[in-house]
Amino acid sequence: MAEEFAEANRKFFDDLADKYDIKPWQQDLHRKITTEIQEKATTFIEPRLAAHPPGLRLLDYACGTGMLSRALAPWITTTIGIDISPKMVDRYNALASSPTPSTKDNKTITGIVGDLLNPTPSPSLSSPDFYNFDIAGVCAGFHHFHSPALAIERLAERVKPGGVVLIVDFCLEDEEGKWIPSRADHTVTAHGFSEGTMRSVFGGAGLVEVGYSVMPGTVTLRMDGAGEGGIERKVFLGRARKP
Ligand SMILES: C[S@@+](CC[C@H](N)C(=O)[O-])C[C@H]1O[C@@H](n2cnc3c(N)ncnc32)[C@H](O)[C@@H]1O
After folding, report:
1. In angstroms, what is the span from residue 107 Cα to ligand 1's centroid?
2. 51 Cα to the center of ligand 1, angstroms
3. Which superkingdom, per the lineage (predicted)?
């Protein structure tokens, strides 16, 4: 069941990859979430970033085209993106290789195909390069996992002691009344996450210093079926630290 669900995600995002973040509404959503991540980076997400310590390592899980990687690039030296969709990883690496102010100065951003939620993840993910991250985050991917609790456990295994697990996703709030069926429905297990759920999954993985911060305003989703006005959704940042 879990493997079928993962395969549905791989196929859906392989088919979508070329069109994933090119429409104006998608770019507006990415811009708003990027701004929120950057504004909260040194306060809510990880206060240690404020000192710009050298050599920090980020795991961007379910990286897609790399919004989280680019948002945190000013603070991070080595970024590894992992995604189940090879075509999303191709786009991630293509974007990472185009020089930007945030990827110069010996910074590296590398995407690879993988599924940490698979009971037998690819052996290449067992190498030390894929452990001891300072931050392991998932942006807009958490609702695509068959088990959010398992995902937090897997991310917690990948950060160093004292490292941070970060989730950026949709709030649960009143979304049930607004949800409009979409062709992506078979790839999601939730339409959002409450603060209570996030505290429970972070705590269940032994993480501490849990925080849940709601982004001001909303983002507009204009997927198929959303109609003229689209769907307004609230976004949260959830974070916790490995003791
Ligand atoms: C909505 S996109 C978000 C992409 C990107 N993080 C962003 O913020 O734009 C969800 C991503 O999750 C990936 N994904 C879904 N299930 C996954 C899994 N089990 N392991 C890794 N990636 C997965 C998909 O391939 C897709 O790239």
Report:
1. 23
2. 30
3. Eukaryota
